[in-house]
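hey so i finally got around to running both of the ones u sent me last week. sorry it took forever, my laptop kept dying halfway thru and i had to restart like 3 times lol. anyway pasting them below in the order u listed, first the sequence line then the structure token line for each. didnt double check formatting much so if smth looks off just lmk and ill redo it

first one:
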Amino acid sequence: MRTRLLAALASAVVIAAVPACAAERPPAESGGWNDTGEVTYWMWDANQLPAYQECADDFEARNPDIDIAIEQVGWDYYWGRLFAAFVANAAPDVFVDHTSKYGDYTSRGLIDPLDDLIARDGPDLSQFVEGTPDLWVGDDGRRYGLPKDFDAIGLFYNATMARDAGITPEQMQNLTWNPQDGGTYEKVLARLSVDVNGVRGDEPGFDPHHVATYGLGIAYPPGGGSGQTQWSFLSGTLGWSHTEKPLWGTHFNYDDPRFQATIAWWRSLVDKGYMPPLELAVGNKPSQLMQAGRIAVVTEGSWNISTFAKLGGVEMATAPTPIGPRGTRATMTNSLADSIAAASPNKGAAWKWVRYLASPECQSVVAQGGVVVPAVSSVVATAEGAIGAQGLDITPFTRQLHEGTAFPYPAAQHAADVDSIMETAMERVMSGSADPSSFTAANQEVNALFTQG
């Protein structure tokens, strides 16, 4: 049967709070186990839509009594729309979920655990890249998703600018960093920064207030509580971690001197003219600034590699994150998964679709699409090849998973509140209106979330 592709034109959605009564409603009472019918499936990444449309077509050919209706909405509107759908009892049967979000759904009973279904039907969790299945075990010990991909952080840089500055690819592959003087990482960023008079950041007379090209780009907002693409790969090299344990921690560490020293160094790049002020980042994506020649380097996730590979008129290259004082690199890694809404009337069909989404059959299609690296180990090489064919090397990103220098996204309850508190605190520091020591008070506010009744 033909899949209905719903082209969703996103509009602003007021984020409504999910009623507390939802947490009291057992999934078995709010949904139904039908093995046939239509399964609605929501996702946010337009770049992956063609691959998942092909997966849906293949799935329907194997299951002619199930229709898959895919709806794609951009990230900026996706989560508000999803919460509104839960409130209206109109949530999709299956949706792409994120580590930072699913704790809010498990605490309210809005998504179903999959443990019994996996025990009955598979798959064998050993088929996935090591560590990715762990991200989808909630703080209640139950599993809420099957990993579908994995990611890492690395450097995208303008190869022409680097070459003109006398910086070699070998230098870019072996950068070092420390929070005292920034190591060779800061030296490269200084060299790549050029003011309106053509003076470089490491030359006498450089004007940090009138910069034509900044060495390093900054994304807005500047990292919130996770700093996934912005600073976590730096603080991680100091042995700092967001919470007292890798996943589902209840005590955050933003008062740690190592974290505050990392952000102090990062903020100093703005003062030195090596990184733009926040106001330049507002409304301008790093890829746009890169294409406009305003920045030379940006730290971003591997999921954006196809975006940077397609930038017209720019010769791009990739490099791994810098080596820190302890002699190793660090990168945050995450894995998306598909969750089943507890209120779905077609859970049997939804479970068949979720299993297929995480299967080697579907993920080989995703791998060939060359956008992300699937979490199914057997197709990782295919994805690396497909991405490399676009002109950018993904191994500076994936090497850290092979070398054991990756750490997981800090899944925690109250994630939205943590991010809200830290986003405000981070913006104040990065705009120069507060000192990094102000994170100590913000940390107290964050930890209070876990001690209140």
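and the second one:
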Amino acid sequence: MATRTTTRRDSDRYSLLRALGFAVLVNVVGAAPSIFSSPDSAWFRSLEKPWFYPPSIAFPLVWTALFTLLGVALWLVWRSDSAGRRLALGLFALQMAFNVVWTPAFFALEAPLLALGVILALWGLIVGTVVAFDRVDRRAAALLVPYLAWVTFAAVLNFELWRLNA
């Protein structure tokens, strides 16, 4: 009996480490664009901001939390043997690519309208990913809901930044 308990504990520990690894991976991928572009540029500082623009510290805190939730959701889908797993993983990768592209589109290219197109496509891909994740693991889909809410807010913010500075 002791061997069975030890094996289960080791398996649980290994699963926890894997989930943590997925969370770290998604955070690294999500943060990668900040190496090449930054909201600290003179161009961005000169933009007129809408009244609801959050304090700068909110962005890294929110994105770290969201990317961590995404990593756990990805892990839940990854470990599933559901028939819809492959589609869900593909949609996740595609939406993540659009997420990564938004930062250089907005900050490096200084193109808020282009970035708005990217974020609107991202929003649709997130909705598709939530649906696909729901077919594999309902918990994974639920973990994406805060991300969808934040990207909705970010799209409105992106639109306002474009509108105020066009």
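quick thing i noticed on the 2nd:
The mean pLDDT is 93.
anyway thats it, ttyl
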